[in-house]
Amino acid sequence: MKRLQVDVAVIGGGTAGLGAYRAAKRFTPSVIMIEGGPYGTTCARVGCMPSKLLIAAAEAVHHIEVAPGFGVHPQGETRIDGKEVMDRVKRERDRFVGFVLEGVGEIPQQDKIDGYAHFIDDNTLQVDDHTQIQAKRIVIATGSRPSWPPHWNDLGDRLIINDDVFNWNDLPTSVAVFGPGVIGLELGQALHRLGVKVTMFGVGGAVGPLTDGAIRQYAADTLSKEFPLYPDAKVELMERRDNGVFIRYQDDQGQSQEITVEYVLAATGRRPNVDKIGLENTSLELDARGVPTADRLTMQTSVSHIFIAGDASNQLPLLHEASDQARIAGENAGSYPEIQPGLRRSAISVVFSDPQIAMVGSTYRELNQKFSACGCFEIGEISFENQGRSRVMLRNKGLLHVYGEQGTGRFLGAEMIGPNVEHIAHLLAWAHQQQMTISQMLDMPFYHPVIEEGLRTALRDLNAKLRLGDDEIERCQRCPGE
């Protein structure tokens, strides 16, 4: 048994683990990184990058299909070669992974421990059966994994997750997608546009991460016109039959329907990888999901020398969030016992569906819970259906809600679906982080003709509804929801 003593041990070699390792190294040379699987990031291997490659192929097909609306008529039938599509996806995916692995290769070999780490106590880690590590500080960066109901395992190899999609050599004929969240919407719509027969099922009416009922309903209505989408499905039976899966469900009219698909894609969420690392042997405080609680500004857990970062932290499972958390956790682990709060940026998330879905700052649900007793926030609205540039491009589908605070006029957040709203979301995230007011945002330049003019219309609508002034500020400060 090999025994090591180090200043900092980082558990995990993904986005958060690599970031935490590099951050801690700036404070002490005695840092190791432990990884039981392949080094690299979920984003590059099976997440944001390969999914965008699939989406890009789907967009190419869609551009051809909508061309007649402009009076442009492509000759002949569009042929989709699934093998060529997947070959490019995998080649480019491997290229992105290669860039990540180049960075991993630059890490000294003695700083990398291969194997799965398990807590013996608050300072001791056992790696498989070959190494025991005594660490003064520890960063948990073990990532997350897809989750689904256990009885779905009866579907065998007909049950797949997003990881499996990017290993296909060819496109299947049909897929049932369970979970219209970020992963489900992106992959489901892309596969549909590439000629795969897609049926999508959800529970509880959720569509993407949206919490604003009007935006969520618009998204459901719009996407369900393109492929069958049941956000609150009632599935009566799902079972393996031969080389497919038979599904019986009730449609929106309550009528029983039956389909047989090649695969069931489980996009029903992810769970932090903290359930098999021996947390029961530590004195860490855990939340209801069994995840260590942590201060979001320092990433410090209830055990002062243990930090957590990335998807394992049960906060926002996004790459830019994982990178920020990794830097904070790594720096604080490296400089411990000196702890400094790190920069946490305004929340921003994007679903690369078409139309795109995006959220910035505080969600509608958060604001409604906070201000429900006194109505201290207001909503500005714009429909993209008659927005100039959107109609020019025949992409005039969408709805944007912006939220502002009564009294101060401060911008609080936004939820939206619309054409290229990833760009609007970035503008709004910058404004939110700068704590700008709606009036200040309206003083910013808007070019013509651009989709962003729709944002200006929504801000003007909101500005006209806001009640400003000291009296309103004082009233809202007394809001019971505060």
Automatic annotation (TrEMBL):
Domain (FAD/NAD(P)-binding): residue spans on this chain: 7-326
Active site (catalytic residues): H448 (proton acceptor)
Binding site for FAD: K52, T142, G143, S144, D311
Top-level EC class: oxidoreductase
Entries under Pfam families matching the protein: Pyr_redox_2, Pyr_redox_dim
Keywords recorded for this protein, A-Z: FAD, Flavoprotein, NAD, Nucleotide-binding, Oxidoreductase
GO molecular function terms attached to this record: dihydrolipoyl dehydrogenase (NADH) activity; flavin adenine dinucleotide binding; NAD(P)H dehydrogenase (quinone) activity
Cofactor details (free text): Binds 1 FAD per subunit.
InterPro entries registered for this protein in UniProt: FAD/NAD-bd_sf (IPR036188), FAD/NAD-binding_dom (IPR023753), FAD/NAD-linked_Rdtase_dimer_sf (IPR016156), Mn/Fe_SOD_N_sf (IPR036324), Pyr_nuc-diS_OxRdtase (IPR001100), Pyr_nucl-diS_OxRdtase_dimer (IPR004099)
Residues noted as binding NAD(+) in the record, renumbered to the chain: G179, P180, G181, V182, I183, G184, L185, E186, G269
SUPFAM superfamilies: FAD/NAD(P)-binding domain (SSF51905), FAD/NAD-linked reductases, dimerisation (C-terminal) domain (SSF55424)
EC number: 1.8.1.4
Cofactor(s) demanded: FAD
Superkingdom as given in the UniProt entry: Bacteria
Residue ranges occupied by any Pyridine nucleotide-disulphide oxidoreductase dimerisation domain in the UniProt entry: 349-458
Disulfide bonds: C43-C48
Protein family (similarity comment): Belongs to the class-I pyridine nucleotide-disulfide oxidoreductase family.
Entry protein name: Dihydrolipoyl dehydrogenase
